[in-house]
């Protein structure tokens, strides 16, 4: 199997994470390379403490995910009757009333996508820590997928916000947000930060190290 293509790391180059300027790294220098000559940002060959920070954010998101799905997110008052709904009970309500498309959107965006992001990021972290060389292209595609779809988890929050703004009829009909909204918003934001803190270049470092050993310069 031929060696992998030339990369910035093997060419002793480092990319600024802010302005993406390529700068030559001198042999024997530490991971910190001072400041970018163009924008002044601190330079590193890889995101610093990427694995530790991503693990911390993922664990926090898992902890918030439990109350986000157990605590009601809305309280609906209609003709004096009060009803509180969690995310799942809202999905069940829309299914029972025949509104399958809305139920599907809320289920996918608010339940499936956050869990998918958390499990995929956990898988990527474990594979990087175990120095796995298994299908790096597919793992990179997985990372790009969860990074792209993560923001759509806010659909449920947007729906609650719109309903609260529109329905204010006193005792006749009224919708109020509950504490579950805060936990769910925290899950979405934390998973977005977790995806940002993970450095996908770590997926390829093991392969490059193996290629360097197999095909020395």
How confident is the prediction overall: mean pLDDT? 82
Structural Rg: 23 Å
- Kindly report the CATH topology of the largest domain: Butyryl-CoA Dehydrogenase, subunit A, domain 3
Give helix % range.
Answer: 40-55%
Question: How many separate domains?
Answer: 2
CATH class annotation of the largest domain: Mainly Alpha
Query: In total, how many beta strands?
Result: 7
| Unreliable runs | none
- Biggest sheet features: 3 strands, antiparallel
What is the N-to-C succession of helices and strands? EEEEHEEHHHHEHH
Alpha carbon gap, first and last residue: 16 Å
Describe this structure in words.
By secondary structure, this protein is an alpha+beta fold. The protein has 2 domains: 1-45, no CATH class; 49-214, Butyryl-CoA Dehydrogenase, subunit A, domain 3. It has helices spanning 50-70, 87-96, 100-129, 136-149, 155-166, 179-197, 202-214; strands at 13-15, 22-24, 32-35, 42-44, 74-78, 81-85, 173-177. A 3-stranded antiparallel beta sheet has the order 6-5-7. It has a two-stranded antiparallel sheet with strand order 1-2. A hairpin with a 6-residue loop joins strand 1 (13-15) and strand 2. Helix 2 (87-96) packs antiparallel against helix 3. The chain is elongated, with a radius of gyration of 23 Å. The two termini are 16 Å apart.
What topology does this entry show?
Elements lengths: L12 E3 L6 E3 L7 E4 L6 E3 L5 H21 L3 E5 L2 E5 L1 H10 L3 H30 L6 H14 L5 H12 L6 E5 L1 H19 L4 H13 L3
Antiparallel strand pairs: 1-2, 3-4, 5-6, 5-7
